[in-house]
Protein 1
Amino acid sequence: MAKGLVIYYSRSGNTKAMAEAITEAMNQGGLDTECKAVAETTPDDLLGAEAVVIGSPTYYGQMASEIKKLIDDSVSKHGKLDGKVGAAFSSSVNTGGGNETTISGILDCLLVHGMIIQGDPQGDHYGPVSLGRPDERALKQCRRRGERVAKLTLQLFT
Ligand SMILES: Cc1cc2nc3c(=O)[nH]c(=O)nc-3n(C[C@H](O)[C@H](O)[C@H](O)COP(=O)(O)O)c2cc1C
């Protein structure tokens, strides 16, 4: 069965709540998906999933260093993530506070790994964003992204 992995870093719970909503939707979409804090995640874990979704709070318009460290450590698996499905999400405090640049930064790294990224013409285009604690709009975007990742992954891997 195709597997998914949602990885997040979160200090005050906002990004974690997004991760949980995305994970639930991926599981409902038929992808056996685990949700892990980045502190519990190793580069080896990236190999075990066909879809990897990474979320970070926005720190100065960029991903948190904890997420970047995992990505930098994933150089040990370089070439082995080629063709997997990737996605990203972020929480910030301000509108225009850089959540999309954070997502783009994560997606850039996943592209270097050779991963497949799907945009969204109707929902949050780059990936779900939330201002602070995810409200119903943000949770809807998280569920939508989870469904879309699951659908694409099952199309590619089953
Ligand atoms: C070091 C630091 C830098 C931050 N930089 C930004 C920023 O550039 N733009 C913004 O809108 N929010 C910024 N924030 C706010 C967080 O992105 C926001 O509170 C986020 O929802 C926290 O997510 P969490 O609850 O998952 O930890 C920053 C917070 C910290 C601690």
Note: Residues 10-16, 57-61, 91-94, 97-98, 132 surround flavin mononucleotide (CB under 6 Å).
Protein 2
Amino acid sequence: MTSESWLSIPKGSHFSLANIPFGIITTPASPNPHAGIAIGDYVLDLYLFATHGGFSYLESFSSEQVGLFSQSTLNQFAAAGQEFHKQVRRYLQDVFSSVTTVPQALRDNQAARDGALFPKEHVKTHLPMKVTGYTDFFAGKNHAYNCGCIFRDPQKALQPNYLHLPVGYSSRASSVVVSGTPVRRPLGQYLANPGDVKSVFGPCRKLDIELELGAFLCKGNAMGEPIPIDKAEGYIFGFVLLNDWSARDIQAWEAVPLGPFNAKNFASTISPWVVLKDALEPFHVPGLLNDTELHPYLRQERQDNVYDINLQAEIKTADGKSEIFTRTNGKNLVFSFAQMLAHHTIGGCPMEVGDLIGSGTISGTEPGSLGSLLEASLGGKQTYAISTDIHRKFLEDGDTISIRGWCGKDDSNLLHSKVSSANAETLILSIGLVISLLLIFVLDKTDIPFIQNLPAVPSVPIFGNLFQLGSEHPKRLAKLSEQYGPVFQIRLGNRRFVVANSFESIKQLWINNQSSLISRPTLHTFHNVLSSSQGFTIGTSPWDESCKRRRKAAATALNRPAVASYMPFVDLESYVSIKDLVDQIRSGEQQSHTEKDSKKTANFQVDIDPYPLFQRLALNLSLTLGYGFRIDGGADDHLLREIINVERGISTLRSTSNNWQDFVPLLRIFPRRNDQASNLRRRRDKYLEFLLQRLKDRISAGTDKSCITGNIMKDPDYALNHAGGLDTTPACILLGVAILSGPQGQYLQQKLLEEINKVYPDGSAWKKCLDEEKVEYLTAFCKEVLRFWTVIPMSLPRVNVKEVVYKGARIPAGTTFLMNAWAADFDYEHFESPLEFRPERFLNIPEGSGTQHFAFGAGSRMCTGSHLANREMYITFMRIIIALEVLPAQDPAQRPILTGPLECNANPSGLSIEPKKFLVGFRIRDDNKLRHWFEDTEMATRHMLD
Ligand code: HEM
Ligand SMILES: [Ca+2]
Ligand SMILES: [Mg+2]
């Protein structure tokens, strides 16, 4: 056999031809768990391979044996015996070999390749075995010695029995889980301080890993009949990597006199792929020296009874930093698995197929080779500096541990170059949400300690629900503020938040302390999946040099003079939207004439959902400013819809204000969001590349007409995906139009028209609104739209970089602040009759009186696009009002909800409001004027249309 395959296997792959590990998989096509093998970047679905006749060239394979691969665990396959495993494995090596003797099985069999060979990303792995029993040993002598030094003293580090027998204990099979399964921090009893006589109860504070090897059995023994030492290897099916999670504080208190119990039984993670015993044969080496004379039942003939397996463990922190913190080797064992089995059964204990045997923690003797944090932190006495910015005594919430193992040299020319189990990767979660009673205890530990002199909401379990309530939570927080005052602290998981719910308190915190509230919290899930360049837009960046630079660039590109220079684009886009409305009215009119043959009437009403038009308006403006390119198609254009949908999806995923799981490990729902995010990322990469390529082509052809092209070339993320400019502007315009279509809107339109005619009696408003904002009532209307609809009800969260003192409370740097902008914009103390839509409230406000509402946030990280957004709104409303009558839809059931943003929201988990679908009636005011206005814009913008 050669190590080379016709399948392209990346150099260094853990799944080389020499490995062929077995696992249990599901694929989109086969949702029932069944067997597969990993090879390179692929997985061969064994059941489908078998049904395509893949095993018909293996003589010893009978057709009933196909059924072994349709089982949801490998237990039956394991029970078929080592000889069978060996034949199947070697046959599969032949199948994938470049000099395969059975090319027709797969290589030259298109149907089998299409049907059974899948890229590994399309495959989900599951617990490979039904674990019938789980016994964990303690055969890592270096680990045993280190623990002895920590808890006793170096002279008596090893217990007297230690070298005489493999020490072990019975652990729980029921909590053995496959890599990727989140692990909750267990609750239990422990001593808060050494020497205490009374225990405390709470979440474990000393959660640790144990890097181990696990062996699965493929054969049992009868009760009362011990397994002889030199036959014991014949009972082993294969090996996995094992992380025997350990609660050190619970262990220390409970273990005397009967040994570990709850400290070990909450979870043990194994890798999904079982490396067959056959695959590891070339890697036998002698283990650690044991010069104790053993009883004959433990004397193993072969000296090379353990394996030379490189092992390493990596930690990834909640904020995405990662580092390998230990590198060790499987040969650091003083007893072999055969010796463990011989000892396990010497009293007559029967073993079963599916039993799992753990080796015990494997530590080396060199620095950086310890298999647990207990050893690295000397029992928690010192902090272990894993890297310059990762320091641990024990695990913290949100840490992910990956264990890797491989054999042989990193050189694929070597036969059997590399054999390994897959990563055993696990995220640590705090205690879950299900049992709120337990939640309380986790909350004892927060990132920021309790803030003195600041009201706190005590009944914390409520918040588990509160934050799941989506659109309700601004309301719930506002309700709580009636009881606790406008500013209070809450805790969720390990995070403390300061929430502000009134106009005055937000002004005080966000504006008076703006040099302090200048940063933002970082997101976890998002950055783990989307690249960091796509994750860190300005609106999601903490305050650092890069953010400062990007914010400054954005502010310059969006300041008054810059925005004034973009008016031709706003002219074009607002015209295109209104033209589209007019075309729809006209075609509706025509249709009705042919249908009813009624006489032509100037005031024909058509009911339309104008949202797509406003979305196109905002997106095209973004694209023009960013890429010098607009989408010329209808509002249903494919690329347009794709960008709008993907950007909205990403904004929802990235929204810190509503996706609490992004920064509260407790709430992370990892796999679903990962899938979603990587799908969005793929789709996004596609059009970003398209847009960028187009821009480059135009630049090289000298035909680009963009304004801020340079920024884009440096930062492709710039144009799209700012803090919601794509969602917020269209939502505001749409909801403003919704108001106009309602009963009050009929009066408002009259009033607005009067005011407009006062300033522009000659009908020049269409054009002049591009250069000036003279209709004060319309400006006030725009502000009232922003306030009344507060389309980002919980503003983007902030983090303070310096201590903030608020009414005697000292809020330390690093605290997360939430602005309940919705509550502030409906604050009775500040606004008269806030539930009413009243543009008048924003008339006659003296210059320099500061923030008038919080729709754009406030202070140092306030929306940089507010000026552009204001201009887009003013111009679009102006033109709609003079061109069209906005009327209630004829069908009352299709009319909008006009009570406020939370009631009309279709996507409560999003960052911004996504209005529920509704229709608005439109009627042309004056065909003649319209024709002139359209001609004006067409003349002015002709050069901009390709
Ligand atoms: C009506 C439309 C819009 C609304 C309601 C809106 C609202 C907001 C809000 C509430 C914030 C958070 C501010 C804070 O933390 O205090 C924000 C941030 C931001 N917005 Fe807007 N926005 C709108 C349009 C736009 C547009 C059109 C652009 C760009 C062309 C834009 C670019 C940004 C950026 C870059 C940030 C992040 C600022 C930072 O973190 O420093 N927005 N926006
Ligand atoms: Ca262990
Ligand atoms: Mg365990």
Note: The mean pLDDT is 86.
